[in-house]
Amino acid sequence: MSIEGSEIQAVSDYKVDLSLERVQETKKHIERISGYIEGYRFNLGAETIREFFWHTVCDVWIEEIKGELEGDTRVEKLSELLYILKENLKIMHPFVPFVTEAVWQELVTLGLAEGMLMEQQIRG
Q1: pLDDT of 2-24, one tens digit each?
Q2: Mind listing the pLDDT tens digit for each residue in 23-42?
Q3: Which of 12, 14, 44, 104 is most buried, judged by most C-beta within 10 A?
Q4: 110-115: long-range contacts (C-beta < 8 A, 24 or more apart)?
Q5: Is 70 exceeded by the pLDDT of residue 121?
Q6: What is the pTM of this model?
Q7: Residue 87 DSSP class
Q8: Count of alpha carbons within 13 Å of 107, Cβ hemisphere only?
Q9: How many CA atoms lie within 13 A of 33 on its CB side?
Q10: CA pair distance 113, 110, nearest whole angstrom
């Protein structure tokens, strides 16, 4: 699964529907992690991040979306995945800053993000 060069601008410009189920689930996840961070329960935050990103985003959502990438909804689905990735990178950043910043800078290089990750506001 990849983004064609000609699709990058369309994916970057597409406004994701914030009422989508996966987007709503991501927002709930971010709220949960924010609560752990505010309560100084970093161990629970780190474990919840790993569990959600690995078992929900990677194992389930990416596999589901792979089948939906053909046809008219391709840009919409890629934009949804990009939104989910960016929001997860933001919440992961306090735990693995060098890794998340490196991934973010790859997105910047592709024209899919701007600036440094630590400057971004979490939307959760």
Answers
A1: 666 667 888 888 889 999 999 99
A2: 999 999 999 999 999 999 99
A3: 104
A4: 110/3, 110/8, 111/8, 111/9, 111/12, 112/8, 112/11, 112/12, 112/82, 113/86
A5: no
A6: 0.88
A7: H
A8: 23
A9: 27
A10: 8
